[in-house]
Design brief:
EC number: 7.1.1.8
GO molecular function: heme binding; iron ion binding; quinol-cytochrome-c reductase activity
Order of helices and strands: HHHHHHHHEEHHH
Strand order of the largest sheet: 1-2
CATH class of the largest domain: Mainly Alpha
Shape: flat
Strand content: under 5%
Catalytic activity: a quinol + 2 Fe(III)-[cytochrome c](out) = a quinone + 2 Fe(II)-[cytochrome c](out) + 2 H(+)(out)
CATH architecture of the largest domain: Orthogonal Bundle
Distance between the termini: 147 Å
Protein name: Cytochrome bc1 complex cytochrome c subunit
Membrane topology: Multi-pass membrane protein
Number of strands: 2
Radius of gyration: 34 Å
Number of domains: 2
Helix content: 55-70%
Length: 274
Amino acid sequence: MSRSSKNPALKAAKRGRRHPLANVALIAVGLLFSGGAYVAFSATTASADEASASVSSQAQVEEGNKLFQANCATCHGVDLQGTKDAPSLIGVGAAAVDFQVGTGRMPMQMQGPQAEAKPVQFTNDQIAALSAFVASVAPGPAIPEDKYLDTSEGDAANGAELFRINCAMCHNVAGAGGALTEGKFAPSLHGVAPAHIYEAMITGPQNMPVFNDANLTPEDKRDIITALKYMENTPSVGGLSLGSLGPVAEGLFIWIFGLGTVVAITVWITAKSN
């Protein structure tokens, strides 16, 4: 028997047929080439996206710097170091700026016991730019992620319990607000955007304490927001809520209007009998 008859590969080569492993090798080479091309393209695209985001972020910071110097530096200092009229903003983070400016508390109209909410003076883009600039100077609490503001994912029952334990002594059990000392007050939480409620918890504006993630987890904060929005959107089952200010307001209502009505009826009966 000849050598060629003993070697199938040689016989196949003589007949013009490929080796059985040739197809496997060809597929492997194709996969390697296409995979390498995809990785190179992805890396190039990612680098381009990062560069674009960096340019956009830098432009936003520069715009925020211009807005700050024109509107805020008089009180807070050109380097955010603070003055006798306003505190330092170094390290307060983007969340504090978004809360204070986004609720209209800043810029303040005049000095007083505390800054009150009023119509917002800046657009959303300008607020974002101011927040980015302040955050670029020193790290601080960031604007919360959307997943922690989604009340559809929150637990209203847990949030109501946490609110009663941590917040109700100032803001009232119904979130209607309450008086503090020296002309200060805890504002009503009705109608406040979820992001601003969250930001207030992590930045502690004015008399409010800071609730960091060790005190209340992000999920706990979301539950509190969920409970507040549930109370805000659910009608009072007891009828007229009288502002949800509690037993003092209800007792005063009964004293003035209830007793007043009794006195008026008594006077009317006495006048008719004469």
